[in-house]
Design a protein that fits this description.
- The structure is a single chain.
- The strands form 2 sheets. Strands 4-1-5-6-7 form a 5-stranded parallel β-sheet, with helices on both faces.
- By secondary structure, the chain is α/β, with parallel strands linked by helices.
- Helix 3 (57-68) crosses helix 11 (214-228).
- It has helices at 4-13, 23-26, 57-68, 84-89, 91-94, 116-133, 148-151, 160-174, 181-192, 196-199, 214-228, and strands at residues 16-21, 34-43, 46-52, 73-78, 101-105, 137-141, 177-179.
- The two termini are 30 Å apart.
- It contains 11 helices and 7 strands.
- Helices cover 44% and strands 18% of the residues.
- Strand 5 (101-105), helix 6 (116-133) and strand 6 form a beta-alpha-beta unit.
- The chain has a single domain, classed as Rossmann fold, CATH 3.40.50.
């Protein structure tokens, strides 16, 4: 169970904040995103490396925390290509005993698995249970909308809206703060009359129709701050 007041108090007092998830968590797609040599975990033949992405939603959040609340720290362990089964299997490599707040963005890669939606629900419930047992605040974050071309790529057995439905259900069942980027960006698109294709790309960004460029990353950052109840100056 996560509450704004508990999270804000912990950040003010000095919290260890961990960002966990897939490539959208790592900030892939943003400009100046680079992969390091630091291994987060290995899963069979798959090796997941840490990334640094200063212009991603996580990078902007980390910068805000370091400047406004230097007594708190943010570490991003987002893993390109990881699904929630891999994340839950490597929970102890991702979450430290002294972590206070976990921000979890995952589910895009579960779309590629036949039983992915069921696995997503089960794994996220398990993740929430583990966090609760250890007294950690868990914040659930959704993926952003992708372009139609990317959404219907051959590997997408399930779709982004299906993932968001599962995340909404988990957030409700476990009473978690839910940073719903998917609907937040959809509302922006409806208000402005734009399409996701108009805003998802950016100079120096990956521009593959899924991983957002800097503008959408900033929208995700603003949404995160709004849900957490932290004030920012734009």
């Amino acid at each position: 169970m996560s509450h704004k007041s508990d999270i804000i108090r912990k950040i003010i007092d000095g919290a260890k904040i961990k960002i966990i998830g897939d490539s959208l968590s790592a900030g892939t797609g943003s400009s100046q995103c680079v992969q390091t040599d630091e291994v987060i975990f290995k899963d069979g033949e798959n090796i997941f490396y840490r990334k640094i992405a200063p212009n991603s939603w996580g990078g902007l959040f980390s910068k805000y925390i370091s400047e406004k609340y230097p007594q708190s720290t943010v570490v991003n362990l987002g893993c390109d290509g990881a699904n929630t089964t891999q994340l839950i299997s490597n929970y102890d490599k991702l979450v430290d005993e002294d972590d206070d707040i976990i921000i979890l963005l995952a589910g895009a890669n579960d779309r590629k698995r036949e039983n992915g939606l069921h696995e997503l629900y089960k794994n996220l419930i398990h993740f929430a249970d583990l966090a609760e047992q250890k007294g950690k605040e868990l914040v659930l974050v959704s993926l952003n909308p992708s372009t139609e071309n990317n959404e219907f790529f051959y590997s997408r057995i399930h779709h982004s809206e299906d993932v968001v439905t599962v995340l909404s259900l988990v957030a409700d069942v476990k009473n978690l703060l839910f940073v719903d980027n998917y609907r937040y960006i959809q509302r922006y698109l409806l208000t402005t009359g734009k399409k996701i294709d108009d805003i998802i790309c950016g100079i120096g960004c990956k521009n593959d129709g899924l991983h957002p460029g800097d503008f959408v990353q900033k929208l995700m950052y603003i949404n995160l701050m709004e849900v957490l109840g932290l004030g920012i100056r734009l």
